[in-house]
Design a protein that fits this description.
The protein is of the alpha+beta class and 432 residues long. The protein contains 13 helices and ten strands. Helix 3 packs across helix 4 (101-128).
């Protein structure tokens, strides 16, 4: 037991646990969460826009990029937050735990931040696999937790700002007036919590233990001597080695999953739930026609797409749509779960169709699917998408008749929109 506890002492006081390293890891983690927050807000408001909002339709793969970054940065948060917790772990043993309003805010904010962050990235990861083993709505909770995380992060940064400012960058090499002196350098290299009594306290940069942990190990040292050999004080993992390990971990989770979003990494896509080129007509899908309960209505011979503008309306059979001028565009299907794939779509320009019911400039649409139920059975499309020449009522995919799982007899495809808004199995378009 003595050998075990002394070994644990040595591990806790490793040189990888110091203020400078905690700030470095925290800086990377903060950037990752801010990227997730910004891209997440963009995705949210694309799906639930406020009345005054308009979004860019160029480039057509904009959402493919932003949501791919969102999911990739979220996955990178796993090794980063574990590394951050590792570097600050000894602070859990500080006594007394609360010394004033500052320490109360620090502990409360970090508790909320860590708890909310672990829940947020975990449910986000499971969402990419469309696995929901919880009783609450994913979208609502994921959105709300993002504000909890950013708010608690802001409080934590405010409380720790003096430490962050002091250790934000390594000043050596920026001139003698900015370089650390020997005392400051020793402080940077010292562990966050020093718990090593004799014979380990002679490790460079380690001070005498204090608090509950210190009393515990002084009690151990006061115990009667026994022949147990003291653990060797060989070099612990270096700071550089620790950072390399964290970097390799981040690179691994990114490279092995980001292939579902970015074609360059496709050969390394081992763990992501979607693989480019796999699915009907070589394009992945999330929801089949059977799951949407449209196998009969979509194939019905009397199907027609109805477009209305107040009292004016027009109906188009699939044959009538095929008889109209056809346009071909290359646009990606980019889903909120992070996967995406570029495809070639052919169909009728949406703005040509809405002119059939005398819709003016600035017309927006309410789009209804044949689906029986679902949160995206009825969606809205802003005027910027309706007016764009790349927005199609698509009838063909990759040169072939649209597969029923891809939305036969007709589906919507528009630039820069989430896949859940690229409505399949169209039934009705209403000018708003």
């Amino acid at each position: 037991m003595r050998r075990l506890l002394l070994t644990l002492q040595h591990a806790v006081a490793a040189p990888t646990r110091n203020p400078r390293l905690a700030v470095v890891i925290g800086r990377l983690l903060g950037i990752a969460f801010l990227v997730c927050f910004g891209t997440g807000l963009y995705s949210h408001f694309l799906q639930e826009p406020l009345p005054w909002m308009h979004f860019p339709t160029f480039p057509g793969n904009l959402y493919q990029f932003t949501q791919g970054i969102h999911i990739t940065a979220g996955i990178a948060c796993f090794p980063l937050i574990l590394a951050k917790l590792y570097t600050v772990f000894p602070n859990l043993f500080e006594t007394p735990p609360i010394t004033g309003i500052g320490s109360l805010l620090a502990r409360a904010s970090i508790a909320v931040f860590v708890g909310a962050s672990l829940v947020e990235i975990t449910i986000g990861l499971l969402n990419t696999y469309q696995f929901y083993p919880w009783p609450f709505g994913f979208r609502e909770v994921h959105f709300a937790l993002s504000f909890v995380i950013i708010g608690s992060l802001a409080i934590h940064i405010g409380v720790k700002l003096p430490i962050i400012a002091k250790y934000w960058r390594k000043r050596d090499g920026y001139g003698p007036e900015l370089a650390f002196d020997e005392e400051e350098r020793a402080e940077i290299n010292a562990p966050l919590v020093d718990v090593l009594p004799e014979p380990l306290q002679k490790v460079p940069g380690v001070r005498q233990a204090s608090g509950l942990t210190g009393r515990l190990f002084r009690w151990i040292d006061a115990a009667p001597a026994d022949p147990i050999e003291q653990p060797r004080t060989g070099a612990s993992t270096s700071r550089r080695g620790f950072l390399v390990t964290v970097g390799v971990g981040v690179a691994a989770v990114v490279v092995l999953t980001a292939g579902q979003s970015f074609a360059l990494l496709r050969p390394f896509n081992l763990f992501a739930p979607r693989v480019k080129g796999i699915g009907p007509q070589s394009v992945p899908i999330n929801r089949t026609a059977a799951a949407a309960q449209v196998t009969e209505t979509a194939m019905a011979p009397d199907w027609a797409l109805t477009i209305s503008n107040g009292s004016r309306s027009a109906s188009f059979t699939r044959a009538a749509l095929l008889a109209m001028p056809q346009t071909t565009v290359d646009l990606p299907i980019a889903c909120v779960e992070g996967w995406s794939q570029l495809a070639t779509w052919t169909g009728v320009r949406l703005n040509d169709l809405v002119r059939q019911v005398e819709a003016g400039e600035g017309a927006a649409l309410r789009i209804t699917s044949l689906e029986k139920e679902g949160g995206y059975r009825v969606t809205q499309m802003g005027s910027e998408y309706v007016a764009d020449d790349s927005t199609l009522v698509a009838l063909a995919l990759n040169g072939e008749t649209l597969d029923i799982d891809h939305g036969y007899p007709a589906r919507m495809i528009a630039p820069g929109r989430p896949g859940v808004l690229q409505t399949k199995w169209l039934s009705r378009l209403e000018v708003m």
